[in-house]
Design brief:
Distance between the termini: 14 Å
CATH topology of the largest domain: Rossmann fold
Strand order of the largest sheet: 2-1-3-4
Structural class: alpha/beta
Largest sheet: 4 strands, parallel
Number of domains: 2
Bound molecules: zinc ion
Low-confidence stretches: none
Length: 161
Amino acid sequence: MVKTEAVKFLVTEECGRLARWLRLMGYDTAQATMQSLTELYRMAYSQHRIVVTRNSRVSASCLFPVIHLNSPLLEEQLRQLLRELKLELDDIRFFTRCDRCNVPVEEMEKPLVRDLVPPYVYRTQERFFSCPSCQRIYWPATHWQRACAVFDRLQREVGHG
Ligand SMILES: [Zn+2]
């Protein structure tokens, strides 16, 4: 069993949507854009990342464990990962990372975002976060609630939550 907080992923390029969802769940998830398998394995090995792929070339020749996703469907892929790694989702870690850059977001004082978000959002939201890499501003909105509902459902279905 893998210790949940320690889990880091390296997802190959055809699974970009999965990479973004893993980041939303709080997992450090790098995406492989390199063409060379050797480089991919080196990165996984040196950064202690679990390789996740749908590319059978990657899974067939890897010398250490790789998770080969059985389904092209996002929820099915998440379910497989939760099951195989016995991951337990932790809501404290949800939305703590930029889903594009994979870096931790930082909470911002509300007045600092006044000119950076739409007026309606500024009026109705209290907490704001920004990504130090791409400068995007995040706030807890309905898509967060929808994502949380998906996380909860997956956790229940997998049955060790
Ligand atoms: Zn970012």
